[in-house]
Structure formats: structure tokens, C-alpha cells
Design a protein that fits this description.
Subcellular location: Cytoplasm; Nucleus
Main location: cytoplasm
CATH class: Mainly Beta
Family: Belongs to the iron/ascorbate-dependent oxidoreductase family.
Oligomer: single chain
CATH architecture: Sandwich
Distance between the termini: 41 Å
Shape: globular
Radius of gyration: 19 Å
Protein name: Fe2OG dioxygenase domain-containing protein
Strand order of the largest sheet: 1-2-10-7-12-5-4-3
Number of helices: 9
Strand content: 15-25%
Keywords: Cytoplasm, Iron, Metal-binding, Nucleus, Oxidoreductase, Vitamin C
Order of helices and strands: HEHHEHHEEHHEEEEEEHEEEEH
Number of domains: 1
Structural class: alpha+beta
Length: 339
């Protein structure tokens, strides 16, 4: 079966096939319901009022260092565009299996890649997840079907890129650097932007499966939105915390390459996705990274005798290949390049 959605719809599925069942880990951290991630007001971050902007930059820096996740409000993305893109994403997954197979890439780094699980060639157990991945910058790539999908995608990811670039300026200032510090070090203007649309069908036994196991994201920042069904959890102080986004907000998380660049001052945080039996969850992530051929290493400005370089230099492309060629094992891919 090409997709989980196809599996669910092929018959009256009453139980989960054995190749999707995950064993429960008795050492799983305790779930903590009362915490929630910080909230950043984007309008304050780009305010012309120096005092207001300075306070927002400090709050942004604290969120990146302490949590690695934050909710972004007043971001300027029209709610109509966000909702339209979620509808377009649903329409893509509603296409027939044969139509979706047209976009099944033969290589994990293909500019358009539609598939299921994470990497079915190495996954020991399959994940309850279908996906579409598109490299949308520096050259925009997207499926031509369904009607209107490509146009809506391009408008959406362009706006996301503008938001992420402003956030990177704020993070640069929070590190005590010039606002274009990350832009220049990572050549952000020519950098890679990856669009990932995840589809998690309703599952008859959600406690037995995993949408995505514990992992970290590559790149600098990931901007995430979703439909009304939750499922994302982040690891904070050794506990799993469910994320409940505010209406019309984005969830932002720091990526592995921001941790490398800052030599660990900012951490890329482990997170996972659970599924439910109520309905399909759709999430849309846009990950901003450097150009594929860029060599990423700790910035000299953030390395010193008391803080030696903690990661070896590696090209962004090689890092992606390492991550995508191995199974998600509950650890950060950063472990493979630590000094």
C-alpha cells in the first residue's frame, strides 16, 4: 500500500496491522499537561518602538535558549491564506493513490517527494503518516495537481519565508550580534526552504502507533501550522508536553543547524507526533536552512577558549543525507557530528 490513507480506506479497518505497532517504552518521560510554550508577538519584534522591539528580542532569545519552541502571534499571515492552504493540502491527499504516486521521488533528496512513514527502506516499524515534501526555495517546486495547489503553495511559502527571515534577525540580535549575522553566515537569501505537509489519518488504535517518533529538525527554523486536531509533543525538562497552539498562531522551533551555528547556545529540541481516533490531522511545516552546498560549523564569534567548537563542519546536503538515510531512533542527528 502506497499510503496509510489508502490502507485505511481500502477496507473497514478495525485494527492496526502488525508492521505499524510500536512497543510501549516503560521509561517514557512523564506527560506534563500544565506547561505551555512561550508566546512571541511578531508585531512587537518588528516594531518601530526601540524599547518594545528590544523587549521582544530578549523574549525571543529566552524562548529559543530555554525551550527551542514558541508560538508566534500577530505574524501578518492572512488567516484566509492559511486556511486555504490547509484545504489545498487536504485536496492533495484526497487524490487517488495513482495520482499521488506520480510525485513519489526515487531519491530522498528529490525536489518533490510524496510517500509514507519516514524512510520505508530503513524504518523497522512504519509510522502512521503520509507526507508530501517540496523544495520551494531557491527554486519553487510543487505538484501541478490538484488544481490551484501550486499557486496557493507558492503564496503561502513566500509569506512564511518572510516571517522566518525576520525571526532570524531577532535571534541574531538576541545573541549580541548584528541583525544580519545569521543571514550572512548562512546565506539565508539563497538558502533552502523545504515544505513538508504531513497527513495523519484517524487510527482505530492510536495508542499502538506513532505518527512520528522523537526527533529533531534539520535547518535553522521550522514554521508549523495545523488543522484543529493536535498531536505534537515536545520534550522539556525530561517530560513530554503537549502543544496546544493559540488560534491563528504559528508554532516555531529551532533546528539542528541553528544549534551548530551557535555552538549549542540555542538547542534543537526533541519532539514527536501522536495520532488519534477522531479524525485526520494535517500539519504543514516550512523549514528554512542554508544552501544545500553550504558548509555549516560553529560561528567563530560564538566559540572561545571556555566554549570550544562542539560540532564538526559538514555541508547541509550531507547532513540531510545522513538524517534521511537512517531511521528515527529517538535521538538527535546532531549526535553523529558532535566533537
Amino acid at each position: 500500500m502506497f499510503s496509510v490513507k489508502g490502507l485505511v480506506e481500502s477496507n473497514d479497518l478495525r485494527s492496526v496491522p502488525s508492521n505499524y505497532i510500536w512497543s510501549t517504552n516503560p521509561e517514557d518521560p512523564i506527560l506534563h499537561e500544565t506547561e505551555n510554550v512561550p508566546t512571541i508577538d511578531f508585531s512587537q519584534l518588528i516594531s518601530s518602538n526601540p524599547c518594545e522591539q528590544s523587549m521582544a528580542v530578549q523574549k525571543l532569545g529566552d524562548a529559543c535558549r530555554d525551550w527551542g519552541f514558541f508560538m508566534l502571534i500577530n505574524h501578518g499571515m492572512p488567516e484566509t491564506l492559511r486556511r486555504e492552504f490547509l484545504r489545498s493540502s487536504q485536496n492533495f491527499f484526497d487524490m487517488s493513490e495513482e495520482e499521488k504516486k506520480e510525485y513519489a521521488g526515487g531519491n530522498i533528496c528529490d525536489p518533490i517527494n510524496c510517500g509514507t512513514s519516514f524512510n520505508v527502506t530503513v524504518d523497522k516499524k512504519l509510522f502512521w503518516r503520509d507526507y508530501l515534501k517540496c523544495l520551494v526555495h531557491p527554486q519553487f517546486q510543487a505538484p501541478s495537481k490538484p488544481l490551484g495547489f501550486s499557486e496557493t503553495s507558492e503564496e503561502y511559502v513566500t509569506k512564511c519565508r518572510e516571517i522566518i527571515q525576520q525571526l532570524l534577525k531577532g535571534i541574531s540580535k538576541s545573541l549580541g550580534q548584528e541583525e544580519n549575522f545569521i543571514h550572512e553566515r548562512m546565506n539565508v537569501e539563497s538558502g533552502s526552504q523545504l515544505l513538508v505537509i504531513n497527513f495523519y489519518p484517524a487510527c482505530p488504535n492510536p495508542e499502538l502507533v506513532m505518527g512520528l517518533p522523537a526527533h529533531t529538525d534539520h535547518g535553522l527554523l521550522t514554521l508549523l501550522t495545523q488543522n484543529e486536531l493536535g498531536g505534537l509533543q515536545i520534550q522539556y525538562n525530561g517530560q513530554w508536553i503537549p502543544v496546544n497552539p493559540l488560534p491563528n498562531s504559528f508554532l516555531i522551533n529551532t533546528g539542528d543547524h541553528l544549534e551548530i551555528l551557535t555552538n549549542g547556545k540555542i538547542k534543537s529540541v526533541i519532539h514527536r507526533v501522536l495520532v488519534n481516533n477522531k479524525g485526520a490531522r494535517i500539519s504543514v511545516a516550512t523549514a528554512q536552512g542554508p544552501p544545500l552546498e553550504a558548509v555549516v560549523s560553529p560561528a567563530p564569534e560564538l566559540v572561545g577558549d571556555d566554549n570550544p567548537a562542539a560540532y564538526r563542519a559538514i555541508t547541509y546536503r550531507d547532513y540531510l543525507t545522513i538524517q534521511k538515510s537512517n531511521e528515527l531512533d529517538g535521538k538527535s542527528c546532531l549526535d553523529r557530528i558532535r566533537i
